[in-house]
Specification:
By secondary structure, this protein is of the alpha+beta class. It is built from 18 helices and 16 strands. The longest helix is centred in the first third of the chain and has 20 residues. It is elongated and about 95 Å long. The two termini are 52 Å apart.
Amino acid sequence: MPIKPTTPKGTRDFSASEVARRNYLKELLQDAFETFGFQPIETPSFERLETLTGVYGEEGDRLVFKIINSGEKVKKADVEALSKGAYQKFVHSLSEKALRYDLTVPFARYVAQHQNELSFPFRRYQIQPVWRADRPQHGRFQEFYQCDADIVGNRSLWQEIEMLSLYDTVFTKLKMEGVSLKINHRKILAGIAALLGAESKLTSFTVALDKLDKIGKVGVLKELESNAFSSKAIATLSQLLELTGTPTEQLDTLEALLVDQEEGIEGIKELKFILSQLEISPLKTVALNFDLTLARGLHYYTGMIVEVGAPDSVKMGSIGGGGRYDDLTGTFGLKNMSGIGVSFGFERIYLVMEAHGLFPESLQISTEVLFANFGNKSVAVAYQYVNKLRNKGIACELYPTEVKLKKQLSYANEKQISKVVLIGSEELEKKEFIYKNMISGTQTSHPLSELDSLFT
């Protein structure tokens, strides 16, 4: 029985025109990264399972694609753990590797492993596919590209400004209007959790807050209530979620409320510094806003966090995000290595550009000249000229078999090849070739000695 030709759930094929547009976007991102002094690296498509678990939070860990052990290693599976319902233990006994969930954790592993070879602060960018066992939907796939830029080895807040400026530079180059940057600070969230008397529930607090766009304010408050947050805490948070005004005005209000929360005040001061510098060197394209509800569920963030919103004209989730992390490499034994990183949502940015018609009209490199195949000696001569034109950088091809000319010209039309060269036995005797213009339909005879110059 034949296999039904379908792609796995959450994955896609890309046509030649789509690959051309993806390469255009990729090259633009690479150019922006390198303008900011970032260097490219690549890491393996899969990592040790222990590298990828325990850093994304419980929800993130569930989305990691595990690779089942093969061969003799399958015998190591802890069947007893399965029978007792200890599923996590069973999974770890059955799998030692997993596909990378993002590029940040593999990068942290890379820094720790190669620390003696790097110059700090180390600025890297990375454009590679990642995999998540998420429910596929519009703009969300199980296999997709991430584009990350990180700076590690320095705690200066100028690095935060650099990352926000990088976002602005990219979206300016893409001519994408209506993009917004939302910023917050994990220390402010920690200060609010302390104000609510829930210091020990910071994770529950940020995870719930991060769902605001999906479940709304009422849904967030109900989730916190189910996590044993007091009615007083929920009432206070309800008021905080109604903050309005400019970013600076909102931070001033929070500063008065968190006056006794040292960690929260520190986060407010850091954001105020960032905002003050961006007033001196303002962003050109993106709008910058403070959003107290922004939490970003990944547990490794410790400072400023940022999320990029798509233009309102396109129904799409975030198209980028990131933040400061102070001890991500500590997992791998490298302590006190602060870093900041941002990610560009390659697939979603592509969809926004497509919706807004932002890709140049002609990107795909296609065959410019087709040499017809008349067999015998003439095809060998034709192929010599194919190679001559290719050596001069002209995209051309030889029709592979000797078939009716009508079929060969039909092939040229299907591939939108505008020029066809005909060298049959008669032309060969006269040392000529026929040039057929597929757009105008005209054809003219020329000496073979002029073939090179006609197309260059």
